[in-house]
Design a protein that fits this description.
The protein has 8 helices and 5 strands. It is an alpha+beta fold and 235 residues long.
Length: 235
Amino acid sequence: MPARRAGALAAILVPLLLLVLALLAWRALTAGTGTGTGERDGRPPAAGGAAADALAALPVREAAGDAGYQRTRFGQSWVDVDGNGCRTRDDVLQRDLRGVRLDDDGCTVLSGTLDDPYSGREIPFRRGEGTSSDVQVDHVVALADAWRTGAQGFTDEQRVEFANDPLELLAVDGSLNASKSDDDASRWLPPRGECDYVARQVAVKSAWGLWVTPAERDAMAGVLAGCPGQGLPVR
C-alpha cells in the first residue's frame, strides 16, 4: 500500500478508535458511580416510565381538609355529560364488562361479566335489587380525596365533568370499592393490579391539576418502583 494512502487511512481510523475507547470508558465510569441503571448509594433505582415521570411532576402539598365537602358538590350521580343519551355508569359498564346485554333503551346494562382489575376475579353482573352492587363504578381518585387536593377550587361545572370523566372511572368489585371508601394510595391499595391503579390515579391528578400529599406521593412511588415500565392509561 502506498505510504500516502496508508497515512490517509490511519488519519480516519485512529480518531474512530479513540472515540470508541472514550465511549467504553464513560460507560464503565457511569456504571461505577451509579448514574446508570444500577443501585445508587445503596438505594433502589428510581422508577422509570411515563407514570413515574408524571408522578414526579405532580405538586406535593398537605391535604386541604374536608371542610365544605359533600357528594352533591360534584353534581348528581352519573349524569349524561357526553350527550350520548346514556348515564355515565352505564357507559362505564358497557366499556368494562364483556358479554354485555342491554335493555331496549340501548343504554341500560342488564347483565355482563367483569374481569375485576382489583381482585383478578371474574364477577357476573346482573341488574336488580341485591345484585347491581356486586359491580360498582369506582372513582379511582375518590371524590373526597380530590376535594382535599385541589377540587375545592374547581367550578361546579368542572366538578361534574371530573366525577364523570371516563379516565377517573372503573367498574370494579363492589365490596372492594366499599372498603376503599375515600382513601388515597397511602391508606388503600387493591389486592391486585396496584401498578395500573396507581398509574390511573397519577393520570387523573395530572389531567386535572390536583396535587398529592407527601404520604400519598411516597406510597405511589413505592408501588411504581416495582413496575418501572408502567405507562399511563389513556381512557
